[in-house]
Design brief:
Layout lengths: L20 E2 L10 E6 L4 E6 L5 E5 L6 H16 L2 H10 L41
Antiparallel strand pairs: 1-2, 2-3, 3-4
Family: Belongs to the ELOF1 family.
Protein name: Transcription elongation factor 1 homolog
Subcellular location: Nucleus
């Protein structure tokens, strides 16, 4: 009589934990921004331990600390791309009426761009049949 074959134990799956400590957007220090989730008041708090940067965002029961951090990044980008930032970029940009920098070929003192054939060889170096007589 043989022994009954035993079943293998199931392999435990490791749950991936998301970070709750991030890099600061203002002072650029690594792993200094901590996120605290207050589920009772439904607010996520961000605070940097080096600089006075802080932020609060509304959360729900599905929110994770990375969600609050990404909301903070979006809020910073929206603040930087506001009407004041667009006016500053228009005043500092070159070209006609803020349409970007003028082309390099139209600048005085610049040589005209070199023409190349389909193989990328400049036309001055191209071997033509009339060279061989």
């Amino acid at each position: 009589m043989g022994k009954r074959k035993s079943a293998r134990k199931p392999v435990a799956k490791t749950k991936i934990r998301l970070d709750s400590v991030f890099d600061c957007l203002f002072c650029n220090h690594e792993k200094t921004v901590s996120v605290k989730m207050d589920n009772e008041s439904k607010v996520g708090h961000i605070h940097c331990s080096v600089c006075p940067a802080s932020y609060q965002a509304p959360i729900n029961y599905l929110s994770d600390p990375i969600d609050v951090y990404s909301d903070w990044i979006d809020a910073c980008e929206n603040a930087n791309s506001g009407p004041g930032a667009q006016a500053a970029s228009r005043s500092s940009g070159g070209g006609a009426a803020g349409r970007g920098p003028p082309s390099l070929a139209s600048r005085p003192g610049r040589p005209a761009p070199r023409r190349v054939d389909s193989y990328g060889v400049p036309d001055e170096l191209d071997d033509a049949e009339d060279d061989f007589e």
